């Protein structure tokens, strides 16, 4: 039981050392992720359409 308590105390100590991002940093990161996701989805959708059209011409 003592090891569990020591582990929890060490976890709390390590979490106090963490530099947590500000709200504006989180918001800007979320924007980057969302924009990147949309761009990749559009690119993959275009490639899917292109390959489908190409295969329809062949077969």
List keywords for this structure.
single chain; 59 residues; mainly alpha; 88% helix
What is Rg?
A: 24 Å
How much helix is in the residues? over 70%
Q: Helix segment count?
A: 2
Order of helices and strands: HH
Beta strands, count? 0
> What about the largest sheet?
none
- From the N-terminal CA to the C-terminal CA, the straight-line distance is 69 Å
Unreliable stretches (pLDDT < 50, length at least 5) are none
User: What proportion strand?
Assistant: under 5%
What is the global morphology? elongated
Mean pLDDT: 96
Structural class by helix and strand composition: mainly alpha
Describe the overall structure.
- This protein has helices spanning 2-17, 23-58.
- It is an all-alpha fold.
- The N and C termini lie far apart (69 Å).
Short description:
This protein is mostly helical and 59 residues long.
Task: Explain the layout of strands and helices.
Layout: H1 2-17, H2 23-58
């Amino acid at each position: 039981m003592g090891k569990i308590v020591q582990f929890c105390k060490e976890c709390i100590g390590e979490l106090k050392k963490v530099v947590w991002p500000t709200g504006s940093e989180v918001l800007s990161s979320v924007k980057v992720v969302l924009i990147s996701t949309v761009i990749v989805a559009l690119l993959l959708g275009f490639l899917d359409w292109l390959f489908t059209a190409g295969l329809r011409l062949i077969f």
